[in-house]
Amino acid sequence: MPAIRRPNPAHLLAFTVLLLSVGGGPATLIGGESFPSRSLKIVTPFAAGAASDIELRFLADQLSIRFHVPVVVDNQTGAGGVTAARSVINAPHDGYTIAWVGNNTAISVSLFAKPFDPRKEMKPIVGISEFPYLFVTNESSSYKTLQEFISAARARPGTLNVGTSSAGTSNHLVALLFKSVLGLDILVVPYRGPSELSIALLRKDVDIVINPYGGLRQGITDKQIRALAATSSARLDELPDVPTMAEAGVPDFEIASWNALYAPANMPADAMDTIREAVTGILSQAGVKEKFREIGFAARALPPDLLDRRMRSEIERWAKVIADSGIERR
Hints:
By secondary structure, this protein is of the alpha/beta class. It contains 12 helices and 12 strands. The chain has helices at about 10-20, 50-65, 80-90, 105-110, 120, 145-155, 170-180, 195-200, 215-220, 270-285, 285-295, 305-325; strands at about 30, 35, 40-45, 70-75, 95-100, 120-140, 160-165, 185-190, 210, 225-230, 255-265, 300. The chain is globular, with a radius of gyration of 23 Å.
């Protein structure tokens, strides 16, 4: 009887990796096992239901399909994103816990007395999206254009206000920058969250609101909110009748916020490459781009070097706004 030949374990491993690669699953080997071989966690500083959270959960579903493992979204709000970032930095640096960051992350460096520094404690994986802010008012408001609001503010100093999300958030600082650049005597009113801000706008407790399009889309669609201007460089495809800030008479006020994936500084490079390649492939799909547009974002897979440059530039930009506005560190 001929001897039974036992398969070589090394050959079995190579064959398994080949099958996974062909099937679109994980093929990167880290520590002797394929990556990812278990669930991934993405920690976000945004509350569940926020526009950025909806965007992230859609992306997580797509990654789960591609990797054949669960991709879990962990909402850890508070402290301008510092709480969420610390959670990622303090987790094992094995590639299975990564961070969802953006403008608020850059702001927190100057806003908090004990922040984390994404330039030193984290590494960029890939940019995900960018989006402008909208200046809006209640549909029944007398302000038909942004210039009408500006003129009213100049005519009645100290009587008009602008609503934003929590103090220290991106749109709060955009409002402070708007006030400073134009030299307006207006009150900037930060609310505790998007829902309270929306209620205040619908009740006409505030004259105008500054917020990303994603958080205003339904109100605009339902004709409850009137958009006055967008901080983008060009008009939005979704809102072709809404002028840019420059067209509305406020030049040099182009602001694009953004979202990205970051990793702890010591995360294995191969794991970062695997995630980046998967995300880049997902964001290139026409259906994904359309889904992002529906919720107010432009998909853009920014490579690590450009993402790092953007982070550093935003840290400098918002540090100046915070200093000029006299906001105290927390």
